[in-house]
Amino acid sequence: MPTASGVAGVLLAAGASRRLGTPKQLLQDHSGTTAVVRMTRALREAGCDMVVVVLGAEAARVRDALVGETVRIVENPAWADGMGRSIAVGVETVRLHGPDARAVLIAACDMPSVSASHLRALCARAEGSRRVASLYTRDDGVQVRGIPAVLPREDWPRLEQLSGDQGARPLLQHADTLTEFLADGVFDLDTPADVQRWRLAMQ
Questions:
Q1: Strands 7-13 and 103-108, how do they pair?
Q2: Which residues are CB-neighbours of 160 under 8 A, at least 6 positions away?
Q3: 25-76: pLDDT as tens digits
Q4: DSSP per position, 95-141
Q5: Strands annotated E in the chain
Q6: How far apart are CA 25 and CA 94, in angstroms?
Q7: Model's pTM, two decimal places?
């Protein structure tokens, strides 16, 4: 089974979940596993050499949920400004503490369709030096590229300059970006209705 050797995971877990009204990082599946722990373990299972979890809103509670997990936790003091700065903080942490990493695998907590097997597929296609995005289909039929995504070291200077709501999507739109299809990738846990649908699907 291929692994993500040379790839560091960056898990974005800093958002305030305003539309949901409760921290999505702490939503539990049928086994009682929180979303942040589930994704941490998926990144590990995919073979990531290190996993950096970027915290922000509800940092103390999310940190408590991660007790016992093999991760490096870092807080983004500017988490309220948007995803961009969290990506920058996570990538900077990998650069400083993961000298052997050749790429980062960026993921989020609120995409229940993401599995360790999908993350492994991204890493296998990247081969340590290619940029690979998840490809999913919106409700209107348009296909979009997004995270989880593998971005090689040559992309890191741009990622470390991100701020506000700007994520990695501009990089992922480049013609040389490879893709790996993710069924139901457009579905995330943004609202109470989303969570209800997710829980029904788990029954």
A1: parallel
A2: 88, 91, 92, 95
A3: 999 988 899 999 999 999 999 999 899 999 999 999 999 999 999 999 999 9
A4: HHH-TT--EEEEEESS-TT--HHHHHHHHHHHTTTS-EEEEEE-TTS
A5: 7-13, 50-55, 72-75, 103-108, 132-137, 143-152, 178-181
A6: 21
A7: 0.93
